[in-house]
Design brief:
- The chain has 132 residues and is α+β, with helices and mostly antiparallel strands.
- It has one domain: Hotdog Thioesterase (Thiol Ester Dehydrase, Chain A, Roll), CATH 3.10.129.10.
- It has a six-stranded antiparallel β-sheet with strand order 1-2-4-5-6-3, covered by helices on one side.
- The longest helix has 17 residues.
């Protein structure tokens, strides 16, 4: 589902999902830079949101979850290499799920962290949306 998404293809992303956890990696590309030559914050957000989202959705077997809010902290600029975000589930209950993710640069320096709230949608996990 992740790798077939058009937005993930734009980032040349890769993902590893286990129960309650997900790791997303993205190579830094020139097209991701802002005017000052660093990776734009939107790339940090996508990386963190995707890692937290797939950690959470790994526990929900019937429907797609939706990000309802996401708070992030950018702590270090990056201008090259590879980015990695590790997401985990913080809370899983019938009304909401909370996931968090920490992002690292290629030298394992923490560059950002975020926490998201997710809700179960009405969209079933099926091959029609790329779910396998």
């Amino acid at each position: 589902m992740y790798l077939s998404s058009p937005t993930s293809g734009e980032y040349d992303a890769d993902i590893d999902i286990t129960e309650g956890a997900a790791t997303v990696t993205v190579p830094v590309q020139d097209k991701q830079f802002h005017a000052a030559g660093g990776v734009h914050g939107s790339v940090y957000f996508k990386l963190l949101d995707d890692a937290a989202f797939f950690a959470v959705n790994s526990l929900v077997e019937d429907v797609f979850v939706l990000t309802t809010s996401f708070n992030l902290h950018l702590t270090r600029p990056v201008s090259g290499g590879e980015l990695r975000a590790e997401g985990t589930v913080v809370n899983d209950n019938p009304n909401q799920l909370i996931g968090e993710a920490v992002a690292y640069d290629g030298d394992d320096n923490q560059i950002a962290r975020g926490t998201g709230t997710f809700a179960r949608s009405d969209t079933e996990l099926s091959p029609e949306i790329g779910y396998e």
